[in-house]
Design a protein that fits this description.
Number of helices: 6
Distance between the termini: 118 Å
CATH class of the largest domain: Alpha Beta
Number of domains: 2
Strand content: 15-25%
CATH topology of the largest domain: Tetrahydropterin Synthase, Chain A
Order of helices and strands: HHEEHHHHE
Structural class: alpha+beta
Radius of gyration: 41 Å
């Protein structure tokens, strides 16, 4: 039985062995067909990913880009209009405008500590000086809010005084429609 069994095993191996010499696989194109199928599925996946995910995001970015460009154009146009308005304003030698007796309670002091100060503001625009006179109550209110939001410790530093000048200039320029403030000086600054 062992000879018969060995013979049968050898016959089966010859028929089923497609790696041996002269034997061809039963489906010679199976390997290539599977490879082609994998490539097609990958291409289909890439197409779906592109159409459903990437393209909508890119079009969304294009819309955002268009909005940003429109906003930038509006800002540029407003800046150009403001520059033209400044050119039309009458420039004169430096005009000073005093804002005196501003008092603000220091933050966290429960009204026991306060700062009082006088400032002198310089401008080259007569219209700005006139507008500062007309809007002095608004300027005072803005200054009181700014200084009232600072602690005594913060108000006591020299660095604060330097940065406060730029901030005050920005506050006043934000309220002015005609001209702008060039320089701010503290004439008096007292913390009590």
């Amino acid at each position: 039985m062992s000879e018969v069994g060995d013979q049968e095993t050898q016959d089966v191996m010859k028929e089923g062995d497609f790696a041996g010499e002269g034997n061809k696989p039963p489906f010679p194109y199976l390997k290539w067909s599977l490879l082609l199928l994998v490539i097609i599925l990958m291409g289909l996946g890439a197409f779906i990913l592109t159409q459903r995910v990437i393209v909508p995001k890119l079009t969304g970015l294009d819309r955002i880009g268009e909005k940003v460009r429109a906003i930038k154009e509006n800002v540029d146009r407003e800046k150009l209009e403001k520059d033209e308005k400044k050119k039309k304003l009458k420039k004169v030698p430096v005009i000073s405008h005093a804002i005196e007796g501003v008092v603000a309670n220091a933050a966290g002091s429960r009204g026991r500590r306060f700062v009082t100060f006088d400032i002198i503001v310089e401008t080259k625009y007569q219209e700005a000086q006139q507008e500062m006179t007309a809007k002095e109550y608004q300027i005072r209110d803005a200054l009181i809010n700014y200084f009232g939001g600072r602690s005594v410790t913060e108000l006591s530093t020299r660095e604060f005084l330097y940065t406060a000048k730029d901030t005050i200039r920005g506050i006043i320029n934000g309220l002015l429609e005609n001209g702008e403030v060039d320089t701010v000086f503290f004439n008096k600054f007292l913390i009590q």
